[in-house]
Amino acid sequence: MTMGKRRVSRRQFIGTVGAGLAAPLILGAEVKRQGTTFKVGLIGCGGRGNRALSDSVEAGKLLGFNVEVVGTADYFKDRALRTGRRFRLPPERCFGGADCYRKLLETDVEIVLMATAPLFRPLHLEACIEAGRHAFIEKPVAVDPPGCRRVIAAGELAKKKGLVITSGTEMRHNWNFIHTHQAIAVEKALGRLYGGRIAFCIGHMFWRGPINPKEPADLVRSWQNWIALSGDHIVEQHVHNIDVANWFVGRPPVSAVGFAGRARRPAGDMCDFFSVDYDYGDGVHIHSMCRQINGCWNWTGHDFVYEKGRTSGSNGPKPKASPIPADLPKAPNDSMQEQVDTLYYVSKRQPLDQARAVAESTATAVLGRISAYTGQRVLWDEIMVDPNKKPDFYNLTLKPTGEDFETGNVEIPKEGVIPIPGRPA
Known about the structure:
single chain, 425 residues, Rossmann fold, Dihydrodipicolinate Reductase, domain 2, 7-stranded mixed beta sheet, 35% helix
C-alpha cells in the first residue's frame, strides 16, 4: 500500500535479495498467440500492487497477449480510484471497503492480483478460487498457522478446478536461482547439504514515531507495523530467504528455536530482531537472522554449505537440463517474471499450484516467530499437522482477522506491547 511521509518503502530493499535483473528477452513462438485477451484485476492498490498490475500489462506484451485491466479494489476507495485512473477504468470498476474483493470478483475478471496486507490473503484467495479465478498472491500469504493451512487448502481446490496460483516469492521466478537449484538440489552437483545461514538484516523501516491508532482504518494504513496484519517482519520480509532455505533443503523444518527483542522501534507492536535455529532433520540446520535497526552491519542473503562446495542460491554450477519451459520468455526483472509466469501457465490451461510452497514458507516464518515469542522449541507438526499435539499453537489466530474488518469487530492492539518469552503465545 502507498506509504506516507513517515514510512519507507520495502521495495527499496528487495533489490538486495533479487538477482539476474537485466537479462535479455527470449520470446518463444509456441506460447505467443496474437489477439488473446486476459482480464486482470487488482486487490490492494499500494506500491506493490500497482507495480504488479503494470508488470502484468508488460508481461502480456512479451507473450503476445492483450492484458485488459477490468477492476481495482482496495480498503481505501480513493486508492482504488487512483489506480483505476492510471488504467482508464470507469469509477464503477473501482471498489473500496473491507468487502472490496467480493465486488471485484463479481466482475468479469479472470486473473486476480493480490497485494493487500497479509492477514487478508487467506480470505481473499479462498474467495478467488471458489469463484473460479486464477490468482497471483503476494508473499507472505498469512500471519498465523490456520491462515497458512487455509492457503494450502485453497491451492488444492485450485488444482481440482484447473486454476493457476502463482506467488510473490521472487527468487522462485529468478532463472539464476532456478538453474542453481536444479543443479544442486535436484542433480546433486555439490553432494550432500550440510547446513547454512540466511538473513534479512537491514536498517529501520516504516513509521518513525508512534501511530496511536484509533480505528480500523488506522491499522490498515499502517499495516506493516502490526503483528496481526503483517505477521512481524520475520514473516513479512524474511519469508523471502526462508523460502529459499525450504526450497534448497527440499522440505520445511522439523522444529525451530529462536529469540527476539525490541529495543529501538517506536511504532506498532513488532520486534526489532529475530534469531532462529531451524532444524530440518538429518543433521541439517539453517540459522536465520533478521533485523531492522539503523547503525548496524547489514546483510541480506543465503549461504548454503555442501559436501563439495557452497552457494548463495544463485551462483551454482549450471544444470545438465533446465526445468524452465523452452518457450517461456525471460523478463527483464523478477517482479515482471512473476506476471510472465502467471500469464504463461494460464494461457497453457495448465494448473499451477505455488500456494503450498509459499504457505509452507510463511508457516516456517510463523514457526520461528512463535518460538521467539514464547521461548519454546516449537515443532512443525504442532502448528501444521496434528491439532492435538499443541492446540494452542495449532489454533493460534491473530486478532483482528480479515473477517473482523468486514464485520467491524476490530479490537485495536496496544502499541509498544510485545510478547514476553516464557509466557503463552
